[in-house]
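Input record (one chain):
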Amino acid sequence: MTSTGDDDAHLRTLALLRRVRDRIDREYAQPLDVEALARGVHVSAGHLSRQFKAAYGESPYSYLMTRRVERAMTLLRRGDLSVTEVCFAVGSSSLGTFSTRFTELVGMAPSEYARRALTAGVGELPSCVTKQATRPVRNREAPAVDVHLA
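The corresponding structure, as predicted from the sequence alone:
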């Protein structure tokens, strides 16, 4: 049985982790890294990573990249920006890393995703439906099968 002190510490930890997750959601396009996130809540990067993964099932970096990929998918569906412009608009500093992570989560390269989005008429669906239907899969679980946007 846990004591009230343990419960209070656990709740404080969860509140801290929620602040980190909310910051990632808000500032995904900013130059964030685990060290900066940890400094923001006054803990070490290692401690933050362990606690975040225990609470949310993935590292803070993985969560950040998923947010960036989700936003990139939206921008690519619009069709008015190149893959490179989208990469930098969502806060990635490396086109190679961005493309690799995008492909892992979505199951296709960003350029292929953009091409399919334009030819499939995805923009005709309400944005809330499109966002849910095309949500990236976390933890490198993108299907190896052909992905259809329409």
